[in-house]
Design brief:
Layout: H1 27-59, H2 66-92, H3 104-107, H4 110-118, H5 121-149, H6 155-173, H7 179-233, H8 235-263, H9 266-271, H10 273-282, E1 288-293, H11 300-321, E2 326-333, E3 336-343, H12 356-365, E4 370-374, E5 381-388
Helix pairs in contact: 1-2, 1-5, 1-6, 2-4, 2-5, 2-6, 5-6, 7-8, 10-11, 11-12
């Protein structure tokens, strides 16, 4: 009987080679590989553009065309950065925020545009990005291309590691740097809104004076001149003309009071928001309840904005709401002055429709305020406004809202 050990099956034979190592080349990995292979091409284009345009602009800065050329070159860096962000989003799955564009509308001419372009931090960071990317692009292209033929098993790990560096560079240099930069851009935009609003208010005041009180006073002066001439010839006619002139004086004074109230009402200066808003409420065509609960009077600028906001909202209630009742609530919460105006009217108010509500929203936004309208069709309508609280006595402002 043969007692020799039975031969091992082929499945367990030590002479058979082990199966090759298997790694997951999924869609994410292939996108990372494609990104790394494109790095050299994109980095080369960006590097050549940045070095050429910025060198020419800086070298010719002593001439007339130097600084404009540099400004246009920085604008091109923004465009290249936009293309690079799109590539990063597509191939690396990273959402990089788009920086705010230069506000051409509020720059006000060639020299302001030139200065804003030359000091644009976004464009300079984009230029730095493409300046330092070329060496990295060469390394990633060479390593990835070599790994495709030589280091295939470890290519997914290499791709993941190098793509992580790409993601960090994109986040660090291709998106807005911090909240402060975004806030500066918002304030520059808001400054233009404030200037436009102030200019419009000045034109309105000039028009009201020219067409109203000024025209009436000119006519009054002429009537008094005629009355003076008739004083000896026809005393009765002169007396009648003086009486009519007296009536015109009363009307002119009322127009001037209304105009002054539109600029800054005396009751607001003397007695504060509670009395001023109560006075506004009496002119509304529907009954309005007013509640003001403030620990102190806010700064004059904030108080004025609050007054005119409520005034315009109550005018809208009178003209458009078809409401039966309305209410105004004003209170202090933390570092904010809160305003809420409600009515039980037909609703349908929309801040995006180009109405006066849009103008109110812009005005409040210009001072770091908020403006929210909730007005479903059929009503009711509730408008909430927030303003930063500034102390009236010392003129200080609470910490910015986070």
């Amino acid at each position: 009987m043969d007692t020799s050990p039975a031969p091992r099956s082929s499945a367990t034979s030590t002479s058979e080679p082990l199966p090759p190592a298997r790694f997951a080349f999924d869609a994410v990995t292939w996108k990372e590989i494609a990104n790394l292979l494109l790095n050299l091409f994109m980095s080369l284009i960006g590097f050549i553009y940045v070095v050429t345009t910025l060198s020419l602009g800086a070298g010719l800065s002593v001439t007339v065309i130097g600084l404009p050329l540099l400004a246009f070159g920085l604008g091109g860096c923004r465009l290249l950065g936009k293309l690079e962000r799109a590539r990063v989003r597509k191939l690396l799955g990273v959402h990089v925020e788009e920086p705010r564009p230069l506000r051409k509308k509020t720059l006000g001419g060639f020299l302001p545009w030139l200065w804003a372009s030359l000091k644009d931090p976004v464009a300079w960071r984009h230029a730095l990005y493409f300046a330092i990317r070329l060496p990295w692009g060469i390394v990633t292209f060479a390593v990835t291309l070599t790994s495709l033929f030589v280091l295939w098993p470890v290519l997914p790990y290499l791709a993941r590691g190098m793509s992580t560096v790409d993601r960090a560079l994109a986040r660090g240099l291709l998106q807005p740097s911090d909240e402060l930069e975004q806030r500066i851009a918002e304030l520059e935009t808001d400054r233009g809104v404030v200037f436009d609003t102030a200019a419009a208010d000045l034109r309105r005041i000039e028009r009201d004076l020219h067409d109203g009180a000024q025209a009436r006073l000119v006519a009054l002066a002429m009537d008094l001149g005629l009355a003076k001439e008739k004083l000896l010839e026809d005393p009765e006619a002169a007396a009648k003309m003086v009486g009519e002139a007296h009536g015109e004086v009363k009307v002119a004074l009322q127009e001037l009071r209304d105009l002054a109230r539109g600029i800054h009402p005396a009751i607001l200066t003397d007695r504060g928001l509670d009395a001023a808003l109560s006075s506004v409420a009496t002119r509304c065509t529907v009954p309005v309840s007013v509640t003001v609960d403030l620990p102190a009077r806010p700064a004059e600028a904030i108080e004025g904005i609050a007054y005119f906001t409520v005034s315009e909202l109550l005018q809208n209630v009178s003209k458009h709401s078809r409401a039966r009742t309305a209410s105004v609530d004003v209170w202090h919460s933390g570092d904010r002055l809160m305003i809420q105006v409600r009515d039980d009217g037909q609703g349908g108010a929309d801040v995006t429709s180009g109405s006066g509500l849009a103008g109110l929203a812009e005005r409040l936004d210009s001072v770091d305020g908020l403006f929210v309208v909730a007005s479903p069709v059929g009503g009711p309508t509730m408008v909430t406004a927030e303003l930063p609280w500034r102390d009236r006595e010392f003129g200080t402002q609470a910490a910015p809202r986070r």
